[in-house]
């Protein structure tokens, strides 16, 4: 059951009306060297300038990105090539990241290889610490840059640290 840490950047609050700009994924394992990065052309004319600015890309740059269906096919194929068994989607803000990845998989490919659930990294840590006000972010080693591979890697580092602290997870 491989854990796949995912981070996305979007140009608005919801999929369909707005677009996923780019996303990154990291297979959670000690060396964290199996990564995926995709940049997707907008699917809508709508965008929130402040949301898009977080990604570091202009609207004009985004319009030259790859076809979303093709990127999702590449991601599906990468997941298949880099994992065995049931995939576990994990992210820092799974309420946001999951909705975009799930919507894009179902909209463009008809199914989501992650199934119907996801895990929130922050909630795992809060449970470990028995404190709903604590943050896991000090466990990251990679700087949070809003490049989704960097951010997914930092979050994967935090999950590995949580495992070292006693969280019972299998990374096979």
TrEMBL record:
<dbReference type="InterPro" id="IPR036397">
    <property type="entry name" value="RNaseH_sf"/>
</dbReference>
<dbReference type="InterPro" id="IPR013520">
    <property type="entry name" value="Ribonucl_H"/>
</dbReference>
<protein>
    <recommendedName>
        <fullName>Exonuclease domain-containing protein</fullName>
    </recommendedName>
</protein>
<dbReference type="Pfam" id="PF00929">
    <property type="entry name" value="RNase_T"/>
</dbReference>
<feature type="domain" description="Exonuclease">
    <location>
        <begin position="4"/>
        <end position="158"/>
    </location>
</feature>
<dbReference type="InterPro" id="IPR012337">
    <property type="entry name" value="RNaseH-like_sf"/>
</dbReference>
